[in-house]
Predict the 3D structure of the following.
Amino acid sequence: MNKKQNGWKRILAIRGMGQVITVGIGLVVMCIVFGIINPTFFSSKNVANLLRQIAPILLIGIGQSYVLITGNIDLSIGSVVGMSCMISATLMTKGMNPWVAVVITLICCLIVGVVNGGLVAKCKLPPFIATLGTMTIARGIAQIVNNNYNTDAIGDKAKVFRDFFYYGKVAGIYNTVLIAMVLWLVFNFLLSKTRTGRHIYAIGSNIEASKLSGVNIILTTTKAYLVSAFCACVVGLVICATSGMGTMDAGNSYEMYAVAASVIGGVSTLGGQGILIGTVIGASIWGVLQNGLQFAGAPVAIRNIVIGVIVVVSVLIDVIVRSGRFSKKSH
Amino acid sequence: MRRKLMTAVLSLGVIASMCAGCSSSAPKEAATTAATTAPAAETTAAPAAETTAAAAGETYKVYLITMDQMDQHWVTVDSGAQKAVKELGNVDYKWLAPDVKDDAKQIECINNAIAGGAQAILLAANGPDAVTESLKEAVAAGVKIVYVDSAASYPAIQTLATDNKAAGKTAGEEMITALKAAGIEEGKIGIVNVNAATASTVAREEGFRSAFEGTGFTLLETQYGEGDAAKSKDIAANYITQGVVGIFGANEGSTVGAGNAIQEAGETVIGVGFDKSDMIMQLINDGYLLATMAQNPDVMGYEGMKTAVNALSGQDTGAENVDTGVSVISKQ
């Protein structure tokens, strides 16, 4: 049947694509306006910087999107970012090989993902409460690993690490952007083309029905939280590479940036709906606003107001689309 | 004899805090001890203080409440206070702080300290007004308040702080001197601050801006990085793209961010910052930052503790405002 449709129609037929296109148009308009206000916005240097500023938001957005699609939420993201930053930096200042430090950090962060999944799916705690708990615990771990100090500089030995995650470039594109792109491709494939992906949508749409059809709720939920913890871990490593030191408050309130990026891009907080291309647009809007408003010389308060309005409006679009005239499109 | 000892201790403390116009009135015994230099005075104060404590035979409960526990700055205030506690020997000391900078959480800390039986509180107020109500309660309960680092707008025994505005101006002057030495007389300057609510960094920015009055430089709209080194780095990189000639960082995270951005851009942007940490020192020694204004948080904690104990034992506490100063640290 798909063969009969042309490409454009097929894209439009994807659930949630309508909002992505609407918001995407908004993004383009926003870029043009910023470009007119200050042409430096479109300079190659700024575009390169801008993409790198968007990358971490996109990564945590992917993680949060996964969890939101299962009908849950992950508030621990920001703290896992901080934990990842502090654990990796502390190990490196103690002279450990950067890659060994990365592996250990990854394991620690994934444990948080497993705990989140277990608490939510197996122990049936409300996700808001469960991840609120792990959020506080993870922040505490971030503080305790170096005895309540920010770490010293991670030093010259870690230059490879800093280049790999942040400062290096391949084919003129910063590594951070490439990392985000690769992970996006992987996780997008996982979500849209595999059985795990279908299960994630299924338990977000109707958990009882999925249970009856034999979906392993605990495993699927845990997988979503693992993706979230993994993405947060990578962002923590990026931040550690950026600063060249571990800061205990790294990633503060990133979980909310992640919710904003997901929601602006059309991921429903009620679960079962959303596509990762939307998260790209959502993260881009966030990043473009941060960057563009600085170039426009706007006071920070304006930026906060604008971002708040965009979050509310994009969810409003979602609600109107779902309840209103496009309802025939939904399955 | 006891009174003379007390006077000696007092005058030593006052000399150590570099307060002017008091040592002349000290009696002979004090003057002989005080004839040593100021750093030595701190060490000689220890045995004398212990004697006083033994004589008084009373233990005081003193709390330190900072803005958070994360910044190295607060850890250094704490170690300064601990040093004084060790020397005094009659203090039951505790350090309380919210996990993140937050007015409401700091108010809780103050209430907890009062409930815990604090007789004196060394407070680094998060903002000037938010905590005043709970301070009123504390004072009503007989608690002595000494401000360290940041004062609230409520009277206290003493405020030991960096004059942030003056320090910010020094930072600005350092930058102007370096720019002029490089033959730059005009251009844009970027400012990376923490947020609009932290009084100390706002005052630094104010001082920094005042240094540029009447020069050919344009100061851009301030950007706030929440003290986060990664966010601050993004902001600084955006400034560099806009073609700034100088970047000012108002605290540790902002300064690290500015230094990293300058290092990456490889451009001759002059970076001046605040606070001292291993990373900042590395950026300065590698030549990416010109200088940093280092405060003396250990002095705040040390002298603050002594003031608190003096106040509790009914002794003179010296001047109401003590500027603990900054040291300009540049490449050695």
Q: What stands out?
A: Chain B has twelve helices and 13 strands. Chain B has three domains: 1-57, 59-161+297-324, 164-295. Chain B touches chain A at residues 68-72, 75, 99-100, 196, 220-224, 226-230, 233-235, 237-239, 241-243, 252-253, 256-257, 260, 264, 277-279, 282 (CB under 8 Å). The CA atoms of residues 11 and 23 of chain B lie 6 Å apart.
